[in-house]
Every structure is written in structure tokens, then in C-alpha cells.
Design goal:
With 495 residues, the protein is mainly α. The protein is 55% helix and 0% strand. InterPro entries: DUF4116.
């Protein structure tokens, strides 16, 4: 063929000449065509430049690796596709304080950008740089990127911000040497990113749970049943107890070992922190709940009871032990309300606030005389929840006001007129005078009983008695005497 001649050849000779050939071959002879010779020179120059560029890249790469500490913290963009540079960069800078998966790419299109520069547009290249900054924790770059460009790569941005994938090269999670190298990236091991055969590797799992006990969740069933491995995980993070095998959780000796680790763990100084761990570990275990109540009730707060499953909340044995140990229960199960002895024991030790809270759960007034007769010895508001019949029971009311004078407020109108009951009430609490009937509030003997208990009752007198001059003199004398005695006692205490 001639140098300037281009020949079209049909691959199938049997086809009609009018049809276009399937393949067109163009032959160019650079030896005799000056124009084509120029193309040859350009092509040769291109190859030469690529060779020189690659040599320069290699020299720069080696210089960067040898003098890593002298460079900025960022990995140069020209080395983002080089595995060795990536590994050395992560190991040197200890990047990865947050959880990340070294076995995945930040996003597939980022790697593709460097593999096919010709196909990558300028926007992709810019966003690749932006996401690289974000992946390294330099979030200030977001202040200089238009919002529309960020949203164009929204899914990639979300993945990077979550630190789910933090390395722009793919590593092989099935290679144990690669796994150990990846461990050095952030001084952490995340078992959930590893294949099953490595999750069952005792050495790998042991290292992982020592770094973070919660890795136990992703260990094999056999290793979650390994007492030594599980105890190491709990020493690292007590919450990892929930991932131990069910067989170990049935072993009381093992559970006591776990409890002792929490109680003696370094760094847990606050009682609240210990209680929180204990709740997470044992709140659904009846055997341990009873053991804790009997031996460590000081660590159990009412939130522990609230966290227990309903089955345990309604367990009579658990409830009895909680009540006897004076552990507060917010909402009483029906089994407590319907059990007179349990309910009474609970109310005996309840503060005024919780007493009202518990009593408000009753659907009807108390009609049991024996129950109420015991209850009025412990709380002044007990009579408030008695039936009308019991509020009119003289013996019960007398017992109530003798213990708590203010209980006079809740008795029947008829008994507020009873001189003996009112006198007993004001002897216990002078302010109870305000709950007596008008006639007894004007009775001088009753008033004197009240003043003897408390001189500051002038506001509780009737309008008529407030104008009594002699009574005012008595008040002043009583108040002065009480004040004098208070000062003398205070002075003696100071001395």
C-alpha cells in the first residue's frame, strides 16, 4: 500500500459491495507523510513526558515517605491512590479516633476518579478533595463549598461524616496480616467488619475485647462462652456483659465475678456510675436481683426497679425484698396493693411525697380498721384516705392525733368538737388548733395547751381571742421564754 493511501477492507467477502464494511482499517505510514510524522513526534513526546512524570512521581513519593514528619498533616492528593502511602499516613498520624471501617472505600466514585482521570469532570475532582478533607476531620472546608455541590454528593457526604468508611483504598478483610495492619490505623479493632473466621480467632478477639469490651457482641458463639475472654471484655467495658453467652449468665459464680469487677473497677468512683452498670447487667436476672438487694441494696435506686421486666416487677419475692430493703417503687403493681402486709410495709417507710403518690393509686377509701390503725402511727395524712366511717371512729382518730396533731384536719366534723381529741391534737402540735371547731378555738384551756406546745399560734386563733389582751401577754411571755431557751441551748452547744 502507498503511504498516503487509506484502504477499506470488508471482512466478509460474501457481502454486497453497497453495504458498509463491518470493520474499517486505517493504515498510516509515518515514513513518507510529513504531516503524519508530526503526529508521531507528538505521540513519542507524550510517552517521554509520561515516563519523566512517573519518575518524578516516584522520587516525590520516596521523599515524602522518608520525611513524613516534615510535611503537613494532610496526605498529598497525588498519593491518594497509592496503598503504601495511605498505610504509612494512617499509621504515622494515628487517624481514626472515631469508629471507621478500613475495609471499604470512602465512596466508589472517588477511587474511580483517580483510575480514570479522563472521564472525571472538574466537579468530581473538587468534591473528591473536599471529602478527603472531611474524612480527615477538617470540617472548616465546608465553609468554602457551595451548598448545591454538597447536596450533589449528599450520600457520599453522609457516609464520610458517619466515619463508616474512612480509607480511600480497599483492603482485604480476609487477610489476617491486613487485619493487623488495619488495627494500627487507629489502635482499635472492630470485629463487626471482620469475616466469620476472624471473629472466631481467639487471639484477634482477645485483643479486640481488651481495647473495647463491646467488641464481644461480634465474637463467635464459642468465644462468647469463653469465661476468660468475657471477663476481659467486662474489665474493659462492663456493659459487654449483655453479650456473654446464656450459659455463662446462668453461672452464679461467674455473675459474682462480674459484679466484683464492676465494684472494684478503676475509674468508676461515683456510686451512680456503678449503679448504672449494674442496671444494664443484671436488671432482668431474678437471681442476681435478689442477691444485690440482700448484699448491695445501697447501690440500687428506684430506676433499677423501673428497668426490670414486668415479670420481675410483679414477682412477690422480688417485691417483698425491695420493700424490706426500702427501695422506692414508683408505680405499685396490683400484687402490692392487694397484699395488705406488703402495702403496709411499703407505706411505713415512705416519705410524705411518696406516701401520697402510693395512696393515690387506690381506687377506693380504706375501710380496714386494723390496717388504718397501724398506718396512722406512721403518717399524718393516713387518715385522709380512710373511709367516712373510719374518720368518725373516735378511738382511731384519737390514736392518729396523738401521733400527728395535724391529722385532726382529716377527721369528721363531729370529732373536731370532741374536747379530748382536740386537746390531744394541740398537745402534739399547737397549730392543730386551727382545725378544731369554733367553740374549742375560743376555749382558754385548749388555747393554753396549744401555746405550751407552740407559742406562735396567734394566726390560728379566732377573731374574738385575737383581741384578748391577757392572751397576748401570755403569747409574748411564752415566745420570749422559748426564744430564751433556744439561745441558751444554742450557746451551750457552741461551748
Amino acid at each position: 500500500m502507498m503511504a498516503s493511501q487509506r484502504t477499506n477492507m470488508a471482512m466478509d467477502e460474501g457481502e454486497d459491495d453497497s453495504e458498509e464494511p463491518l470493520v474499517r482499517i486505517e493504515l498510516i505510514d509515518f515514513l513518507f507523510n510529513p504531516e503524519d510524522d508530526l503526529n508521531y513526534q507528538k505521540l513519542k513526546q507524550k510517552f517521554d513526558n509520561q515516563t519523566k512524570g512517573f519518575a518524578k512521581w516516584l522520587l516525590e513519593r520516596e521523599n515524602w515517605r522518608l520525611n513524613l514528619e516534615k510535611f503537613d498533616s494532610l496526605l498529598p492528593i497525588e498519593f491518594l491512590s497509592d496503598r503504601e502511602c495511605i498505610e504509612e499516613y494512617f499509621i504515622w498520624n494515628r487517624v481514626g479516633e472515631d469508629e471507621f471501617n478500613p475495609f471499604n472505600a470512602i465512596a466508589p466514585w472517588i477511587t474511580k476518579t483517580f483510575e480514570h482521570d479522563e472521564d472525571a469532570d472538574e466537579c468530581d475532582y473538587e468534591m473528591c478533595v473536599v471529602l478527603r478533607y472531611i474524612g480527615l476531620g477538617i470540617y472548616d472546608i465546608l465553609n468554602y463549598v457551595p451548598t448545591n455541590k454538597l447536596w450533589s454528593r449528599k450520600q457520599d457526604l453522609v457516609e464520610v461524616l458517619k466515619f463508616v468508611e474512612a480509607c480511600p483504598v480497599r483492603l482485604d478483610p480476609y487477610d489476617i496480616e491486613v487485619v493487623c495492619t488495619a488495627k494500627q490505623f487507629c489502635e482499635k479493632i472492630y470485629l463487626k467488619f471482620m469475616p466469620n473466621h476472624l471473629q472466631g480467632d481467639r487471639e484477634i478477639v482477645e485483643q479486640a475485647v481488651c481495647i473495647n469490651g463491646l467488641n464481644l457482641e461480634y465474637a463467635s458463639e464459642a468465644l462468647r462462652n469463653d469465661r476468660e475472654i468475657v471477663l476481659k471484655a467486662i474489665r474493659s467495658n462492663p456493659c459487654s456483659y449483655v453479650h456473654a453467652s446464656s450459659q455463662l449468665k446462668r453461672d452464679m459464680d461467674f455473675k459474682k465475678q462480674c459484679l466484683n469487677i464492676v465494684l472494684n473497677k478503676d475509674g468508676i468512683e461515683q456510686k451512680g456510675a456503678i449503679s448504672s452498670y449494674i442496671q444494664t447487667m443484671f436488671s432482668d436476672d431474678k437471681e442476681m436481683v435478689l442477691y444485690l438487694i440482700a448484699n448491695h441494696s445501697n447501690l440500687i435506686c428506684h430506676s433499677f426497679f423501673n428497668r426490670m421486666p414486668n415479670e420481675l416487677k410483679n414477682d412477690k419475692e422480688v417485691l417483698t425484698q425491695c420493700i424490706m430493703a426500702r427501695i422506692h417503687i414508683d408505680t405499685l403493681p396490683n400484687i402490692v396493693i392487694s397484699n395488705r402486709d406488703l402495702f403496709l410495709e411499703l407505706l411505713k417507710n415512705a416519705s410524705a411525697f411518696y406516701f401520697e403518690q402510693h395512696m393515690s393509686q387506690l381506687t377506693e377509701r380504706i375501710v380496714d380498721l386494723d390496717f388504718m390503725s397501724t398506718l396512722v402511727e406512721y403518717n399524718e395524712q393516713a387518715l385522709k384516705y380512710a373511709s367516712d366511717e373510719l374518720k368518725g371512729n373516735r378511738q382511731l382518730v384519737l390514736k392518729a392525733v396523738t401521733n400527728f396533731g395535724r391529722a385532726l384536719k382529716y377527721c369528721s366534723d363531729e370529732l373536731r368538737k370532741d374536747r379530748d381529741i382536740v386537746r390531744s391534737a394541740v398537745r402534739n402540735c399547737g397549730i392543730a388548733l386551727s382545725f378544731a371547731c369554733p367553740e374549742l378555738r375560743n376555749d382558754m384551756s385548749i388555747i393554753l395547751e396549744a401555746v405550751e406546745n407552740c407559742g406562735f399560734i396567734i394566726d390560728n386563733l379566732s377573731a374574738k381571742m385575737k383581741e384578748n389582751y391577757e392572751l397576748h401577754i401570755l403569747f409574748c411571755t411564752e415566745i420570749f421564754t422559748q426564744h430564751l431557751w433556744r439561745n441558751l441551748l444554742s450557746r451551750n452547744c457552741r461551748n
